[in-house]
Design brief:
iron-sulfur; about 20% helix; 2Fe-2S; nine-stranded antiparallel β-sheet; oxidoreductase; Rieske (2Fe-2S) domain protein; Naphthalene 1,2-dioxygenase Alpha Subunit, Chain A, domain 1; Rieske Iron-sulfur Protein; about 30% strand; alpha+beta; metal ion binding; four-stranded antiparallel β-sheet
């Protein structure tokens, strides 16, 4: 295991060490939104992926509705990603069993009666900016997040970039609330005390102002063209879905980072950068692509540089000291997050999902308001 959790260490003050959750307290695969694929990948048929410790299949029907379901057929386990779409159903490649968008088997060639076990687990799905997102659970606990006070239709999205963070998902998430590492790693000097709050149980937010003091080519260009100070807002939804807004004096930068826990204790980070959509065709065709490329380049350098600098960090709760209070509070919040509620065994309960056909249509009613 690349990042083994070490829970033994120096004795620290009781007020700090006793508050730290054990590694076993963190959800293995938090109930949050994850990126599955781009919609164009579904144009030629269903797609299967190994993600979050299981095999899932996404498919798009003739009416352009999209579903994400368990990949292994409830009959004998064939991978539905090797099957094909027929109208509004997906057909298993082994015995031609067909499944509806809600996971229900509606056709078995060899018999009329459909057994109760013939049902696939389904996951809430949202299509946004051409990307397919799914919620890890039978129903979405909160809407697919976006930047506060911003409408997705006003923005355009770049192609994602990916990298592996050699630490657990909760170590990656806590870095957004670790005030000590801002200057040490990012070369950002805090100009005020960060304001950290929890507007809703599944959202933790950090806001601060900082000065760009780095001497890399990217930081020098930032100071020259964007400004030397920046207001940062980090919104962590469900532990693994993070929206970041950086408002410089003369430019804005926004990106979403999604941490996918991997089975070897590391995390795959998928990042989508965004830029304001041009108001006329000329701007959308010429300036928008350039703006996205520049933002993607700077964001890539910033995040991958951090990942290399803090490789193989380990969660050591017994070694947390009083100056780690910001991280400690974040760890406590992360440990309180729900695990997905799909059980390992096949569910015999009819699925309640109503798969959306339109962008930004949510599968289930939100339980928590999006702020």
């Amino acid at each position: 295991m690349v990042n083994s959790t070490i829970e033994q260490g120096l004795n620290q003050p009781q007020s700090v060490a006793n508050k730290a959750p054990l590694s076993t307290c963190f959800p293995i695969y938090p109930a949050s939104w994850y990126l599955f694929c781009h919609e164009r990948e579904l144009a030629s048929g269903p797609v299967s992926r190994s993600i979050l410790g299981r095999r899932l299949t996404a498919f798009q029907t003739d009416s352009r509705k999209v579903a994400v379901i368990d990949a292994h057929c409830s009959h004998l386990g064939a991978d539905l990603g090797c099957g094909k779409v027929l109208g509004e159903t997906i057909q298993c490649p082994f015995h031609n069993w067909r499944y509806e968008l809600d996971g229900r088997c509606s056709h078995i060639p060899s018999q009329v009666e459909i057994p109760a076990f013939a049902r696939q687990k389904t996951y809430p799905v949202v299509r946004r900016h051409g990307y397919i997102f799914f919620f890890n659970g039978p129903e979405a606990l909160f809407p697919l997040p976006f930047f506060a006070n911003c409408e997705p239709a006003d923005y355009t999205a770049a192609n994602p970039f990916r990298f592996v963070a050699h630490c657990t998902w909760y170590m990656t998430a806590a870095q957004g609330f670790d005030t000590q590492h801002y200057e040490a790693v990012h070369e950002r000097r805090l100009l005020s005390r960060p304001v950290v709050d929890t507007p809703s149980p599944l959202l933790r937010r950090n806001r601060y102002r900082a000065e760009v003091i780095g001497q890399s080519i990217f930081d020098r260009l930032l100071r020259q063209f964007a400004g030397a100070t920046v207001d940062i807002t980090i919104e962590n939804w469900g532990g693994t879905f993070i929206c970041v807004s950086a408002l410089f004096e003369r430019a804005h930068s926004r990106f979403i980072a999604i941490g996918q826990p991997l089975e070897n204790g590391t995390s795959q980070i998928e990042v989508i950068t965004y830029a304001s959509r041009g108001r006329n065709p000329l701007s959308r065709n010429l300036l928008d692509p350039l703006s996205l490329r520049l933002r993607r380049l700077f964001t890539h350098a910033h995040l991958t540089g951090e990942a290399k600098q803090v490789m193989h960090t380990q969660y050591r709760p017994a070694n947390l000291i009083s100056s780690d209070e910001d991280m400690l509070q974040c760890f406590q919040w992360l440990a309180s997050l729900p695990q997905n509620r799909h059980t390992p065994s096949k569910s015999l309960t009819p699925a309640k999902a109503d798969i959306p056909a339109l962008d930004e249509s949510f599968v289930h009613r939100s339980k928590i308001p999006l702020t």
